[in-house]
């Protein structure tokens, strides 16, 4: 047993002596030495010990000495793995007032201690008895036994002291971080080490996490290294890259609890580095599958903008190779580095190749940086983009935006603190405050928690019902109205925090043991004083108190009373007098702002109210948390075409800072819009969604719970455009020529030039010996502008590699990848080398221009031509085909065989007399399309005749330049062409246009836009003609000289100049004689409109000839002539005289519109005319055939219109109508001939109206047959209609008739037969084409009509022949008793009806009293011979035959003379 080690050394190999104090260490060493020697002696005297009863005692001590846990089955609650390492702990299920890691209740613990003490005393007592029993033995034995007794007592004492020092409960404690890991910021490829020191007993198990994912060093050997030594734990990350930027967490756990701490690692990249400089992709083996996965995220989501209430989906295609059908990667979504979980607000979907995140109902809480993370065992890939959420439209104009991030804190039994963040949008008016609403879970009713708005973004809600759950929301209010409510908070339960902790705890696994304890009932105890009372929060609206329950409180629950007093007085006032609070938290409202108060708390239960707690210090009511100061020094920097990076200085001395809002404004607008609707805590933010090319200013506001700060000062204005960076590496290095000691290299321009022109290139070379590259050497110290360079001082037959770097104003970029290995040996081939520096310009939908440079190596003979090859970008090498069959001599070619939307590549081959040389390197793929906004060169000629070519480009950068070329060679000599550039426009002006200027002119902008213009000989000739016209101008005329007649027969000569200044002069010439202003000629020149006119009162015989207007405006002249001779002059003169007479006619009453007629849709005829220049004395007389028509009320004379209505016109109304207008100024007459053809035309127009008003032919069944009919709005007896049957006119007979009833025109078919089936039509004649209405009387239509006819016919027969009571019976008969009564009525019907008489609905039989007769089948009589009172009643006669039945009722009332008296 001496070799045994304690339990803590068995399970914790890193246990160190530093855990022990000196006293414990000394006791342990003595205990081990004594126990070892005693064990030796005990084995020698085992039999003696057994006889004295010491075996049991010693055995118990031995086991007790080996482990602090007693022999009795005490369960362990440590969770072990396969290697007996502690990985956690389990919690037993029991009920009691306290919890112990041992799993024993208080009672069992006490019983165990009592048992141990009893055993020790019993052993000691037994030893004493044995000593007394051996007093009779020899002294030697007695001495030995005495020594053994002393030694045993000493060991018992030492064992008890050891257990006191090594008590498990005093040693075990939860983990604690003595030294926490520190955050690091490192450069790429550097190593970083995170370390921490952890204490705890038992030794905690330490686990490292990266972004909440456990770090497994075996998954990536060499990347992570974990070490643990003497409670110092470290994580080492080798060669950091961007993927290592994360939040790292270290967790320590033992049976007493778990604790975590965090540290961040930020990996930075040197500016200008690209992906080639990144570490090589990590490789690893998937243990499940034994293969390596490569993950790529393509077609990712970009920066997105949404609005509250909308639904947004973010998605990206994920390519995982190799593609395994059943392999499922780990797909995670993060927002602001927080892992998202599926909920009603966000839903995640993985389809096998696409990851989608759907935000079902956007709120501002959803704004942030979203990251998609695809994790495999090999590696993980991430993709991130920002999502911005704008406020929804306010329900009330000018209302603020909704608050956000509503959370609940410090929840208790009847109390919770609700916090939120203020919105970025206040609606144009400052926010007055906020209203907090609550809703009990399970209901839909929201109740407002505060009556007046509060400005503090934190509010204690009281009055909750214990055990119930609630959600909360917040609304902002300004003077315009209320905002929309915020998103509801998470559900919070009103309960004791200790109960909530027990409910949230992880359920313990089944241990096989359930220990239930019951507390003994005890008498009520008045609770003690509450502890640690303090003011946790104080604002001008409320004060929050917090305290801890007292230690002496009995076994029942306690509640609290809160008291206050004004500072400086002892007048304590109970705040909650009616209902004590259950929670150790309380919020006091309605305190006087600015006053100082002290507070204290009393406990109470059924036993009474306890003593008050210690009073707090004086607290002045007011906001302790100040609004943060304004941020400072806002600096915007360029980022992309639509975004700007804004950084600022943090608010100074800001407490409990929530974040910042950034606002942007277009310069000059004075309107600021929020860039973010969710506060950001960093002092740097990328503002997206800006307009390219616009200038913006920015400002920042800070916020905490107290409110928003003042705005910072506005930043300097910045124009939104992409930032300038160093260019990416060139590529495609090739050899153009090689001699013994030099090589000419060529390369392609970088794909990204960094937003600025490339200023030059630097070439490096190195020698390669036996496959091992040497050190790089600079080939050129000064940058070269061409993409070709001769590297000299090389050694013949040596191998070399080259690299090229590009430079711009931002700096020198990183070098290209090393080229292939080239041998420096002289070329001797006969054909030329490859052309180089291929460039594509002027790309359009169907054309482009290819530029290239001739080969450096000419071959044996000079180059005499070039061939251009083309192929689709994705086609095979065999698809190369020539563009030109004949070699071209120029270094450019316009290719016109492109298809829009297709992507092409090009190459060029040079030829000499020896043949065609090697092809150049192909160009990059080029898409054949005309980009939006593409402009062309425009040729313009100004007023001075100067010819210029103009090109405009709207997408300029500050460094953009216009480069003009002739035949694609830059124009540097301005002797023939002068270039002038201003803003976005450039102009190339021809100094002296001539044949030497013929050629192709092009203008290229350094941003890639270009255009060309071909100046041919014909085009030059045309331009020179236009230039001459501009140099020697004429006044343009809109109209030539013309003549027109005006009122009173005046003659107007006029023309209009298109452009003439106010200084223009006009000469009026007639037959070479200049005319001047006078009575006959009146001239006028309107300088605003350019109208020139000359007016003559009339034309005389001497005015026949040529009229000319001569114009002059500066050096510009023009003239226009008009010849008036012969018949043209005579016709104009006659028309002038007529207009003069007509003018005189119109000086009195006259007809503006002569007499005419109008037929209305109602077929009324109106004779009307329009008159003018009338007055009250003007008389209008109507005549028909020379006889005056007397006014009968149909004559109207209003508003210069005269009407004569002819209603129901007929032939007698035909005649000649005349109207005469006259007064003292004269008279005028108008005549209308309505005879013969005139009357027929009138009637035909009326017939046309009637025909158009007719309805469709309809079918109607009658008792006689079938009737076809149509209605018209008006019928005139002169209307002619024709009925057709099967397209033939119907000959009317007795069986087929037609007629008119009112406005109904009908055709009656009597007793129709099968022959009457067919198509029927009615034709209206109006003297023109007429109008037909048709109907088909066949098939089902005929059958239905015929059946209805039969039914109606039968019904008519039945109606004629049915039994009837024709009349003669009174309704009531009043008769005196004893009189005789006789009633008679007429009966009709065929066959003769049967007659029955009824009294009170009972048939009466003829007898002596009642005599009933029916004579000649027509007359029925009813006689009562002697009437008595019993004859009073209701009587009926009922007649019936086979066609029907009819009855007639009458009442007989009999009275006696006595009763009447």
Annotation keywords:
six-stranded antiparallel β-sheet
**How would you classify the helix and strand content by structural class?**
mainly beta
The Rg value, from CA coordinates, equals: 59 Å
Spatial gap, N to C terminus: 148 Å
What coarse outline follows from CA principal-axis ratios?
extended
Unreliably modeled segments: 1-109, 271-289, 505-522
- Number of E-type strands: 104
What percent of residues adopt helix (DSSP H or I)? 10-25%
* Separate helix tally: 13
Largest sheet composition? 6 strands, antiparallel
Oligomer: single chain
Strand content: 35-45%
Mean of residue pLDDT values: 82
Description of the structure:
There is one protein chain. The chain has 1461 residues and is mainly beta. The protein contains 13 helices and 104 strands. The strands form 26 sheets. Strands 49, 50, 51, 53, 54 and 55 form a 6-stranded antiparallel beta sheet that branches. Helix 5 runs antiparallel to helix 6 (139-165). The chain is extended and about 170 Å long. Mean pLDDT is 82; it is low at 1-109, 271-289 and 505-522.
């Amino acid at each position: 047993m001496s070799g045994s080690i304690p339990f803590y050394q068995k399970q914790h190999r890193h246990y160190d002596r530093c855990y022990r104090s000196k006293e414990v260490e000394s006791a342990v060493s003595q205990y081990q030495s004594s126990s070892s020697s005693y064990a030796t002696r005990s084995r020698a005297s085992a039999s003696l010990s057994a006889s004295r009863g010491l075996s049991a005692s010693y055995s118990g001590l031995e086991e007790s000495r080996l482990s602090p846990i007693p022999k009795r089955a005490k369960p362990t609650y440590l969770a072990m793995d396969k290697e007996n390492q502690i990985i956690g702990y389990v919690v037993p299920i029991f009920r009691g007032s306290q919890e112990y890691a041992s799993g024993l209740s208080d009672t069992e613990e006490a019983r165990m201690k009592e048992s141990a003490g009893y055993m020790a005393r019993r052993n000691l007592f037994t030893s004493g008895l044995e000593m007394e029993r051996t007093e009779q033995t020899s002294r030697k034995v007695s001495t030995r036994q005495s020594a053994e007794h002393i030694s045993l007592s000493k060991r018992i004492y030492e064992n008890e002291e050891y257990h006191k020092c090594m008590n498990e409960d005093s040693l075990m404690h939860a983990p604690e971080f003595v030294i926490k890991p520190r955050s690091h910021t490192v450069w790429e490829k550097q190593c970083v080490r995170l370390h921490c020191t952890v204490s705890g007993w038992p030794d905690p198990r330490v686990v490292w996490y990266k972004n909440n994912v456990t770090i497994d060093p075996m998954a990536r050997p060499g990347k992570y290294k974990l070490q643990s030594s003497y409670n110092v734990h470290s994580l080492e990350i080798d060669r950091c890259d961007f993927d290592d930027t994360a939040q790292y967490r270290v967790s320590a756990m033992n049976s007493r609890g778990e604790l975590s701490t965090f540290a961040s690692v930020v990996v930075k990249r040197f500016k200008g580095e690209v992906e080639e400089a990144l570490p090589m992709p990590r490789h690893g083996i998937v243990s499940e599958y034994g293969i390596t996965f490569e993950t790529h995220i393509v077609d990712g989501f970009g920066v997105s903008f949404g609005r509250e209430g909308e639904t947004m989906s973010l998605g990206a295609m994920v390519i995982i190779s190799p593609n395994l059908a059943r392999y499922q990667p780990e797909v995670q979504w993060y927002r602001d580095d927080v892992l998202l979980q599926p909920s009603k607000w966000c839903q995640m979907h993985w389809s096998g190749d696409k990851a989608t995140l759907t935000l079902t109902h956007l709120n501002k809480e959803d704004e942030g940086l979203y990251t998609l993370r695809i994790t495999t065992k090999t590696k993980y890939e991430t993709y991130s983009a920002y999502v911005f959420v704008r406020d929804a439209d306010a329900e009330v104009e000018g209302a603020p935006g909704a608050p956000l991030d509503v959370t609940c804190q410090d929840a208790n039994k009847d109390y919770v603190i609700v916090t939120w963040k203020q919105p970025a949008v206040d609606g144009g008016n400052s926010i007055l405050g906020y209203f907090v609403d609550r809703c009990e879970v399970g209901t839909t009713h929201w109740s407002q928690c505060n009556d007046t708005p509060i400005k503090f973004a934190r509010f204690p809600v009281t009055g909750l019902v214990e055990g119930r759950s609630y959600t909360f929301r917040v609304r902002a209010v300004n003077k315009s109205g209320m905002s929309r409510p915020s998103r509801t908070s998470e559900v919070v339960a009103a309960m004791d925090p200790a109960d909530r902790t027990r409910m949230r705890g992880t359920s313990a696994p089944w241990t096989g043991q359930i220990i239930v304890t019951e507390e003994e009932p005890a008498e009520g105890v008045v609770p003690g004083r509450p502890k640690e009372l303090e003011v946790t929060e104080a604002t001008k609206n409320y004060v929050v108190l917090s305290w801890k329950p007292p230690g002496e409180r009995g076994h029942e629950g306690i509640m609290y009373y809160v008291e206050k007093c004004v500072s400086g007085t002892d007048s304590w006032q109970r705040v909650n007098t009616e209902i004590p609070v259950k929670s150790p938290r309380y919020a006091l409202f309605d305190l006087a702002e600015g006053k100082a108060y002290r507070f204290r708390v009393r406990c109470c239960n059924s036993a009474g109210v306890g003593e008050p707690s210690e009073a707090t210090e004086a607290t002045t009511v007011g906001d302790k948390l100040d609004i943060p100061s304004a941020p400072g020094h806002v600096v915007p920097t360029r980022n992309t075409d639509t975004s700007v990076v804004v950084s600022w200085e943090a608010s100074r001395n800001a407490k409990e800072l929530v974040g910042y809002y950034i606002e942007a404004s277009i310069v000059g607008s004075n309107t600021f819009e929020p860039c973010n609707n969710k506060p950001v805590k960093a002092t740097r933010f990328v503002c997206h969604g800006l307009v390219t090319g616009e200038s913006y200013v920015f400002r920042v506001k800070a916020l905490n719970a107290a409110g928003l700060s003042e705005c910072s000062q506005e930043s300097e204005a910045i124009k939104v455009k992409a930032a300038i960076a160093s260019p990416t590496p060139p590529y495609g290095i090739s050899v153009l020529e090689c001699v013994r000691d030099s090589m000419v290299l060529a390369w392609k321009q970088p794909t990204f030039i960094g937003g600025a022109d490339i200023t030059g290139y630097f070439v490096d070379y190195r020698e390669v010996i036996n496959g091992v590259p040497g050190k790089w050497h600079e080939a050129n110290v000064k940058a070269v502008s061409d993409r070709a360079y001769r590297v000299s001082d090389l050694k013949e037959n040596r191998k070399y590699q080259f690299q090229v770097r590009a430079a711009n104003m931002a700096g020198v970029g990183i070098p290209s990848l090393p080229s292939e290995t080239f041998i420096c040996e002289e070329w001797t081939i006969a054909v030329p080398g490859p052309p180089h520096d291929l460039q594509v310009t002027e790309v359009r939908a169907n054309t482009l221009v290819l530029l290239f440079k001739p080969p450096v190596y000419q071959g044996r003979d000079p180059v005499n031509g070039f061939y251009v090859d083309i192929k689709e970008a994705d086609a095979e090498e065999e698809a190369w085909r020539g563009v030109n069959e004949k070699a071209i001599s120029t270094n450019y070619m316009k290719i016109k065989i492109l298809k829009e939307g297709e992507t092409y590549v090009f190459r060029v081959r040079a030829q000499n007399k020896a043949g065609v040389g090697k092809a150049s390197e192909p160009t990059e793929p080029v898409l054949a399309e005309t980009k939006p906004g593409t402009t062309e060169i425009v040729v313009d000629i100004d007023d001075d005749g100067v010819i210029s070519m103009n090109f405009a480009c709207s997408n300029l950068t500050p460094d953009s330049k216009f480069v003009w070329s002739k035949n694609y060679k830059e124009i540097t000599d301005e002797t023939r062409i002068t270039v002038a550039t201003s803003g976005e426009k450039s102009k190339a002006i021809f100094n002296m246009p001539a044949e030497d200027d013929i050629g192709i002119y092009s203008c290229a902008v350094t941003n890639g836009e270009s255009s060309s213009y071909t100046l041919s000989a014909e085009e030059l000739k045309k331009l020179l003609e236009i230039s001459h016209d501009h140099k020697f101008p004429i006044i343009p005329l809109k109209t030539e000289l013309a003549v027109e007649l005006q009122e009173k027969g005046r003659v107007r000569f006029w023309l209009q100049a298109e452009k003439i200044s106010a200084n223009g002069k006009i000469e009026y010439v007639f037959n070479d004689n200049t005319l001047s202003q006078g009575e006959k000629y009146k001239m006028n020149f309107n300088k605003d409109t350019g109208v020139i006119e000359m007016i003559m009162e009339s034309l005389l015989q001497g005015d026949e000839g040529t009229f000319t207007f001569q114009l002059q405006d500066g050096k510009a002249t023009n003239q226009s002539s008009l010849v008036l001779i012969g018949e043209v002059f005579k016709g104009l003169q006659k028309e002038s005289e007529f207009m003069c007479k007509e003018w005189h006619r119109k000086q009195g009453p006259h007809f503006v519109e002569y007499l005419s007629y109008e037929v209305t849709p109602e077929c009324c005829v109106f004779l009307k005319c329009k008159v003018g220049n009338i007055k009250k004395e003007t008389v209008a007389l109507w005549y028909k055939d020379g006889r005056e028509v007397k006014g009968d009320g149909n004559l109207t004379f209003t508003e210069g219109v005269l009407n004569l209505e002819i209603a129901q016109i007929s032939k007698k109304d035909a005649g000649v109508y005349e109207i005469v207008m006259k007064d003292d100024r004269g008279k005028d007459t108008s005549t209308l001939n309505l005879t013969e053809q005139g009357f027929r035309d009138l009637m035909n127009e009326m017939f046309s109206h009637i025909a158009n008003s007719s309805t469709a032919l309809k079918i109607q069944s009658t008792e006689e047959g079938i009737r076809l009919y149509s209605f018209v709005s008006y019928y005139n007896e002169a209307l002619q209609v024709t009925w057709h049957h099967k397209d033939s006119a119907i000959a009317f007979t007795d069986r087929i008739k037609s007629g008119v009833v009112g406005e109904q025109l009908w055709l009656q078919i009597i007793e129709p037969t099968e022959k009457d089936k067919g198509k029927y039509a009615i034709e209206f004649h109006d003297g023109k084409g007429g109008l037909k209405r048709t109907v088909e009387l066949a098939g089902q239509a005929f059958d239905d009509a015929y059946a209805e006819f039969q039914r109606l016919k039968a019904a008519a027969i039945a109606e004629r022949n049915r039994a009837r009571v024709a009349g003669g019976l009174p309704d009531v008969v009043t008769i005196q008793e004893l009189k005789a009564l006789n009633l008679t009525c007429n009966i009709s019907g065929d066959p003769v009806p049967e007659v029955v008489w009824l009294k009170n609905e009972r048939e009466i039989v003829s007898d002596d009293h009642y005599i009933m007769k029916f004579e000649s089948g027509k007359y029925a009589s009813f006689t009562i011979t002697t009437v008595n009172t019993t004859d009073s009643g209701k009587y009926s006669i009922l007649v019936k035959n086979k066609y029907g039945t009819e009855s007639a009722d009458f009442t007989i009332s009999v009275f006696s003379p006595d009763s009447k008296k």
